[in-house]
């Protein structure tokens, strides 16, 4: 039976499907696989499953072989080459006075190509930089401009929660994040408190957003007039986690109550429907029996 295994090339990178071929693999095994860039060195991230359980229909490449000690040594040499490339490229960027922020370099397993990752406000003319890099390393050079979130994902770091940032530890792709999510969860709208290391809104705002929206369906909206055991008042705050709301009473005092202890109140009388042209005339009332 043909099986499919998930391979990851970076600690927090995307998981790609490969055909196991004749190999029996477990999570954590080091393997050499066939990629569009040639041979690649990766780790088994997900256990093999039958091909019939695979949802994607894209063609599969194969696991070439299990990695050996020599392959692991080659990977260490590649890392050393990448560090040297970062140092040399940064020196060239400073000399050429290019407005770009270099933050990472990746090498193919056979060291035939170096990819330089950077961020910049706009387009950068790096033609002379590429010439200098080719002259120095004698390999193919690719310059790749990425967004600020991708930089944080590749560089890693600690978030304000004290743990490794989510994008670097397990998030594979970025979901849209909006300021409305922070409002929905009652968080401070101070940018310094709801922004991550990348300077953008924290990805973790999306984690509980649907839960907050679901719970708040039973809450009266802020500004709504409600009736409480202590009298009428207006809702001024929500405490979603504890299922409580804060109400400002007519005497300007505040009280916190459970949602179940208040009732919504409407001061507006029901509106009468205005007769529109074309409406049928009402039938006259009679005392005749049916």
Give a quick set of tags describing it.
290 residues; alpha+beta; GMP Synthetase, Chain A, domain 3; 4 domains; 5-stranded mixed barrel; 5-stranded antiparallel sheet; elongated; disordered C terminus
Summarize the structure.
With 290 residues, this protein is α+β, with helices and mostly antiparallel strands. It has 7 helices and 13 strands. The chain is elongated and about 80 Å long.
Describe the structure.
The chain has 290 residues and is α+β, with helices and mostly antiparallel strands. The chain folds into 4 domains: 3-67, no CATH class; 73-146, GMP Synthetase, Chain A, domain 3 (2-Layer Sandwich); 153-209, no CATH class; 219-264, SH3 type barrels (Roll). Helix content is 23%, strand content 28%. It contains 7 helices and 13 strands. The chain has helices at residues 69-96, 127-137, 148-155, 166-169, 179-184, 191-194, 209-215, and strands at residues 3-8, 15-19, 30-35, 38-50, 61-66, 101-107, 113-119, 140-145, 225-228, 231-239, 244-249, 254-258, 263-264. The strands form 3 sheets. Strands 1-2-5-3-4 form a 5-stranded mixed barrel. A 5-stranded antiparallel sheet has the order 12-11-10-9-13, with no helix packed on it. Helix 2 links the parallel strand 7 and strand 8 (140-145). Helix 1 packs across helix 2 (127-137). The relative contact order is 0.08.
Number of extended strands: 13
What is the terminal separation in angstroms?
A: 79 Å
Gyration radius over CA: 31 Å
Return the structural class.
Answer: alpha+beta
Q: How much helicity do the residues have?
A: 10-25%
CATH topology of the largest domain: GMP Synthetase, Chain A, domain 3
Number of domains: 4
Any idea of the CATH class of the largest domain? Answer: Alpha Beta
Weakly predicted, low-confidence segments: 285-290
Number of discrete helical segments:
7
What general outline do the C-alpha atoms trace? elongated
* CATH-defined architecture of the largest domain: 2-Layer Sandwich
Q: Provide the succession of SSEs.
A: EEEEEHEEHEHHHHHEEEEE
Query: How big a fraction of the residues is strand?
Result: 25-35%
The major sheet is characterized as: 5 strands, mixed, barrel
């Amino acid at each position: 039976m043909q099986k499919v295994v998930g391979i990851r090339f970076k600690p927090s990178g995307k998981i790609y499907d490969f055909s196991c071929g004749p190999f029996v693999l477990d999570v954590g095994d080091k393997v050499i696989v066939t990629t569009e860039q040639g041979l690649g060195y990766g780790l088994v991230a997900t256990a093999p499953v039958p091909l019939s359980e695979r949802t994607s229909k894209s063609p599969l490449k194969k696991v070439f072989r299990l990695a050996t000690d020599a392959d692991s040594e080659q990977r260490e040499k590649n890392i050393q080459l990448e560090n040297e490339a970062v140092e040399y490229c940064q020196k060239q960027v400073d000399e050429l006075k290019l407005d770009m922020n270099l933050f990472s370099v990746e090498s193919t397993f056979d060291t035939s190509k170096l990819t330089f990752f950077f961020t910049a406000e706009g387009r950068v003319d790096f033609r002379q930089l590429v010439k200098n890099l080719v002259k120095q390393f004698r390999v193919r050079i690719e310059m790749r401009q990425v967004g600020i979130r991708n930089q944080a994902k590749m560089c890693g770091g600690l978030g304000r929660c004290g743990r490794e940032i989510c994008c670097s530890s397990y998030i594979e792709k970025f979901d849209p994040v909006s300021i409305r999510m922070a409002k929905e969860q009652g968080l401070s709208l101070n940018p310094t408190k709801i922004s991550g290391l990348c300077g953008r809104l924290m990805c973790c705002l999306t984690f509980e957003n649907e839960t907050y929206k679901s719970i708040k369906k039973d809450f009266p909206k802020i500004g709504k007039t409600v009736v409480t055991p202590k009298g009428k008042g207006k809702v001024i705050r929500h405490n979603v986690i504890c299922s409580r709301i804060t109400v400002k009473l007519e005497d300007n005092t505040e009280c916190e109550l459970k949602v179940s202890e208040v009732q919504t109140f409407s001061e507006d009388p029901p509106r009468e429907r205005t007769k529109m042209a074309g409406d049928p005339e009402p039938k006259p009332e009679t005392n005749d029996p049916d």
